[in-house]
User: Which sequence fits this backbone?
């Protein structure tokens, strides 16, 4: 009997400054049995970012070639940079039965959902606009103009929370990480998901 | 602005011997902010059971009067004893906004679900029939005939897992408790549930 199930696809979106990335890393580390999808981008790495881990950092021409070859399930231009999710990336769900977390913006999430209807969508919210602004400023790498641009974008994005299945308010990172971990574990217990129970029940 | 939300109702069912009761207690203790519904029954308490905590132990006549007065949302006869869930018990969800766990058999769960369509239903499974039998025997208070009766009933009940939202296989109590806790926390993060985000988002 084939007990392998397809992996689950978790989509996580958040306005920038909601603290998604650190939350995300914490939970992947904690769980150990879930993989993070690594996107491609043409933007420059921030000082703490590593190629192949945080993103695949590639040049504009390479990105355009990948688009032509149909290697992206979705791609978009954000603040003048290109971001894309490769088809290859999502294959591990089917091929290896691994659960995958995809860290992606709202527009990207919409496109992925159309291809993967079973995707579980989680939205991370900052506790308030003031804290969001503080976090964006604290990042240090962006200009005042860039911060205002991101803040305005964030305010619009926040209203999309209704398109998601779950919402996490990231006021306290440990609480938020516990919630994200709980959502992943709970989804693995869903009757429709926990296919291994069929063989258990069948044996009774 | 009224930020109070209605509490969530979690229904937990399991064939006897699945280890539901100890699992249940562990999670309620761990979480601290969820209440266990206490059912009424006419059966005699087991040595470790306390009145008002595990059950409200009442006499047959009292139970019948409560039925007449319409005080039960559901009641049933199981193995010659009466069990019921009082309406009063479920009121705290609306009145106090508390989350409630209701430990109830499959037939009872079906009735409750009709009245509370938003109830979140969780089924606990034993890892195997052999382990289920061992657990029933280990309880010590039941005769061989009673054990066989329960075992046959359990085998039928197990097939109802499909009517539930979540399934937990109770092979390891700590893992199972973590899963139950995760389901409760995840459900509190659902967009439809987390009503407090409306006031947060409204303030942005």
Assistant:
């Amino acid at each position: 009997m084939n007990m392998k199930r397809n992996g689950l696809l978790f989509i996580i979106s958040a306005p920038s400054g909601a603290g998604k990335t650190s939350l995300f890393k914490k939970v992947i580390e904690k769980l150990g049995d879930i993989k993070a999808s690594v996107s491609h981008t043409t933007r420059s790495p921030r000082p703490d970012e590593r190629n192949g881990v945080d993103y695949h950092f590639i040049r504009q021409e390479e990105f355009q070639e990948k688009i032509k070859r149909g290697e992206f399930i979705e791609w978009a231009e954000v603040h003048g940079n290109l971001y894309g999710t490769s088809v290859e990336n999502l294959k591990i769900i089917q091929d290896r039965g691994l659960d995958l977390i995809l860290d992606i913006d709202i527009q990207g999430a919409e496109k992925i959902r159309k291809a993967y209807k079973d995707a579980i969508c989680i939205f991370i919210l900052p506790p308030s606009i003031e804290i969001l602004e503080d976090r964006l400023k604290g990042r240090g790498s962006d200009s005042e103009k860039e911060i205002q641009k991101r803040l305005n974008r964030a305010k619009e994005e926040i209203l999309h929370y209704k398109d998601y299945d779950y919402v996490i308010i990231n006021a306290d990172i440990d609480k938020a990480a516990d919630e994200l971990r709980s959502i992943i574990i709970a989804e693995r217990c869903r009757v429709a998901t926990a296919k291994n129970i069929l063989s258990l029940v069948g044996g009774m």
Q: What stands out?
A: Chain A touches chain B at residues 122-123, 125, 127-129, 155, 158-159, 161-162, 164-169, 178-179, 181-183, 185-187, 189-191, 194, 197, 200-201, 203-204 (CB under 8 Å).
